[in-house]
Specification:
alpha/beta, 41% helix, 12 helices, nine-stranded mixed beta sheet, two-stranded antiparallel ribbon, Spore Coat Polysaccharide Biosynthesis Protein SpsA, Chain A
């Protein structure tokens, strides 16, 4: 199974980032990437996909946002060339934006009917192919120069010829933010599990009863990482699941993934990396600090952080 398509959901406005999220799509907020260049979040996610072997990307967006996304990237490219056109790094970045625009497809989610509905909007783009699903408000950072997080997931999915979700060990006080799994360890494959149970944003008491995993650190559970490899059969599952709901009820993805786990081989991979949820109050700040500490300006940033911490302690 070869995976050459990616779907990135980016239709949400980001209420917790108000007022900036009300004027700029949160996927277009800037972050300094590992190379030290400030880029829109969406571009960093797309480059994660491209650098892992993906060739075509579909962005699920809100009504009117396709024009805004394209205009923003075209303006960014034009400004780079106008201001720094003779400098190699600017040419390189402009070429990356050109490549992104050439390989982007936009699909509008006309109504906000849930995450599962947003994924279903990509049905025509995906066709009969498997695809990687990524979130427009999550950034991914591999540990210790390992394979990129997306590349790790793609490698397993192509070898196992099945759907695979990325997970990582998450402390119990955060599991209410994520889908959380239970499953069987796959012998001979480190960090690989066959998924048996999924609960969306469980309570701690529910997790203690139903989601404890052998071998995990005390107080930690395996939670979704914000990245999935799915076969096209997920669209049939989503459609059947949606038909069971009352009219107007949101179509979520997790119930469809629970059905997938019962009907076919479905694995989880404990990715060697970290995910940053930019939709949370501190997510953007945490991501920027982590990318900075792993990037080309790490020594300068570390020195600055140490000095600021020392000054804050002295003020107290």
């Amino acid at each position: 199974m070869q995976i050459k398509k990616a779907v990135i959901t980016a239709a949400a406005r980001g209420g917790r980032l108000y007022p900036v999220g009300d004027t700029v799509q949160k996927a277009m907020l800037p972050i300094a990437d590992l190379d030290g260049v400030h880029k829109p979040i969406l571009q960093i996610i797309a480059e994660e996909a491209f650098n892992s072997g993906i060739e075509e990307i579909c962005i699920i967006c809100a009504p009117g946002d396709e024009v805004r996304y394209r205009s923003a990237f075209e303006t960014l490219r034009s400004n780079l060339l106008a201001a720094f056109g003779q400098i190699d790094w600017a040419k390189k970045q402009a070429n990356k934006i050109s490549h992104l625009l050439k390989h982007l497809t936009f699909v509008v989610q006309e109504e906000t009917l849930g995450y599962g509905h947003a994924v279903y909007c990509a049905k025509d783009f995906v066709g009969n192919d498997a695809f990687i699903l990524m979130l427009g408000d999550h950034l991914y950072l591999a540990d210790n120069q390992q394979l990129r997080c997306a590349a790790q997931l793609l490698k397993l999915a192509e070898q196992a010829d099945c759907s695979v979700s990325a997970v990582n060990a998450t402390p119990e006080h955060l599991i209410h933010q994520y889908g959380t799994i239970n499953g069987r360890y796959v012998a001979g494959q480190q960090g690989v599990y066959e998924i048996e149970r999924i609960i969306e944003k469980p309570s701690l008491s529910q997790a203690e009863l139903e989601l404890l995993m052998p071998g995990q650190r005390a107080g930690h559970y395996l939670c979704f990482f914000g990245m999935h490899i799915l076969k096209a059969s997920i669209f049939d599952i989503l459609e059947k699941y949606a038909n069971t709901l009352e009219k107007g009820k949101d179509i979520q993805l997790t119930p469809a993934l629970e059905i997938l786990a019962k009907e076919s081989k479905y694995l989880a991979l404990e990715v060697k990396g970290r995910r940053y949820n930019l939709g949370t109050d501190l997510g953007w700040l945490e991501a920027q600090i982590s990318f900075g500490l792993e990037g080309v300006n790490s020594n300068e940033l570390l020195s600055s952080i140490v000095n600021q911490l020392a000054e804050a302690r002295m003020r107290k």
